[in-house]
Amino acid sequence: MSKILSATNGHKNLSTLTLNNGKPMPLVGHGLWKIPNENVADHVYNAIKAGYRLFDGACDYGNEVEAGQGVTRAIADGLVQRSDLFIVSKLWNTFHEKDRVEPICRKQLSDWGLEYFDLYIMHFPIAMKYVDPKIRYPPGWFDSGIDGTQIIQSSATIRDTWEAMESLVEKNLVKSIGTSNFNCASIMDLLRYAIVRPATLQIEYHPYLVQQALVDYAQSEGITVTAYSSFGLQGYVEMDLEHAVKTPHLFQNETVRKVAEVHGRVAVIPKSDSESMLKKNLHARSFDLTEDEIKSISALNCGLRFNDPLVYFGCLPIFA
Ligand SMILES: NC(=O)c1ccc[n+]([C@@H]2O[C@H](COP(=O)([O-])OP(=O)(O)OC[C@H]3O[C@@H](n4cnc5c(N)ncnc54)[C@H](OP(=O)(O)O)[C@@H]3O)[C@@H](O)[C@H]2O)c1
């Protein structure tokens, strides 16, 4: 047990980034999307045991109760203390109206069994009609309306939502707030009124979708970039997304095979169901690529995006 504790003793033993509010965030975390509910508690517990400290959850992943059970068990067994962990959750699109933000954040905290999130992220710059959690949770994209196939937007502005998220920081319900799936124009606008600046920007980021201008802009504004889907198509093949299935696998690419999956000072949150992959991914932080290696990987960029409402639903072209 003491071995486990010394190997996993909070942020100090892990590579961290410092956010623009001075708080440390682990460079490598674990994503929780698509992990089946029945496995999540054990999965989180084992990942903590393996050394992960950051978990990337969301209302939309529908597994926050089970993720919280894993955390509670790890704390009860003395593997970690709450302050060693960095728990991320996300505000779903149907809770963007000002008066909906705090109640849903409190519900998510209660699902996890936590008093605060380390980071609470606006999942998409898309406001959708409110769905009462008693009726459907997680609400997903489609309104339950007449045929259950409509995406119904709400009139909440990003500013309304951001201001409500700022008040979560004031109330100590969350330590930092961030954005996801924002483009440069949306961030520029948000920075005009933000009293609490976004600590992070979480974006799809892999060799086929480098988005250098967005990464450079966010970093120039002191916003830490977190890469999601850093293995590119891999996370979407398991969903049978057509253009992911048709795309040549990154791991078969000669350039990628020669070097490695991640580079630079961006954080990553890979997801894996397998214990050996979990360990492998955690060590992604233990090497740096050379300039030439980074250049050769970046040259694979072809603007290929997988997580896009336009691709899924034929509407909401937020990245256009
Ligand atoms: N903000 C957003 O809108 C957003 C969107 C998407 C994702 N995310 C977050 O980012 C996390 C990761 O994204 P993701 O799930 O799309 O994709 P990902 O981490 O890029 O890829 C996951 C896939 O890669 C496989 N894999 C993991 N490690 C591997 C390794 N070392 N070698 C070979 N294969 C490996 C996994 O397979 P096995 O499970 O079989 O190991 C799984 O099929 C999510 O869980 C979520 O937390 C956020």
From TrEMBL:
Alphabetical list of Gene3D superfamilies matching this protein: NADP-dependent oxidoreductase domain
Domain NADP-dependent oxidoreductase: 32-299
Binding-site residues for substrate, renumbered to this chain: 123
Pfam families in UniProt: Aldo_ket_red (PF00248)
GO MF: oxidoreductase activity
InterPro entries: AKR, Aldo/ket_reductase_CS, NAD(P)_OxRdtase_dom_sf, NADP_OxRdtase_dom
Catalytic residue list: 61 (proton donor)
Alphabetically ordered keywords of this record: Oxidoreductase
UniProt-recorded name of the protein: NAD(P)H-dependent D-xylose reductase xyl1
Organism: Hyphodiscus hymeniophilus
Lineage: Eukaryota, Fungi, Dikarya, Ascomycota, Pezizomycotina
